[in-house]
Design goal:
- By secondary structure, this protein is mostly helical.
- Helix content is 49%, strand content 4%.
- It is built from three helices and two strands, in the order H-H-E-E-H.
- A two-stranded antiparallel sheet has the order 1-2.
- The longest helix has 28 residues.
- It is elongated, with a radius of gyration of 20 Å.
- The N and C termini lie far apart (56 Å).
- 8% of the residues are buried.
Length: 111
């Protein structure tokens, strides 16, 4: 993980270590996504030689775990919770209640 950690990271926007780790995983996955797709294509291509496919499989297995899409969890950007997260807003349902109150407090209901 140290190899992917940013040299300078603005910690003011992160809540806890889990959110920082989630941010790092998303960045690393985005960086290596095309390389992984190319290796997976080579592995599945039956017209290539068995040796080339085996080398691609070896390279893919030696890549860091953070390059996999399965390592990324939806995590609340406000509280760091991983359960009950609304994907579109990247916020947990529980923390969303306070935001809902803020939004509805600005509406003039006297119509």
């Amino acid at each position: 993980m140290a190899q992917f950690r940013a040299k300078k990271l603005d910690l003011s926007c992160f809540v806890n270590v889990r959110v920082i780790r989630d941010h790092t995983k998303r960045k690393v996955f985005e960086q290596y996504e095309t390389q992984r797709q190319a290796l997976r294509y080579i592995i599945r291509n039956t017209t290539l030689s068995q040796r080339a496919r085996a080398q691609a499989q070896l390279q893919l297995s030696q890549m860091h775990a953070y390059t996999r899409s399965t390592q990324i969890n939806n995590r609340c950007i406000e509280g760091g919770k991983s359960r009950g997260v609304i994907r579109h807003f990247r916020m947990a349902r529980v923390s969303g209640a306070s935001h809902r109150d803020l939004v509805f407090s600005d509406i003039d209901w006297s119509l």
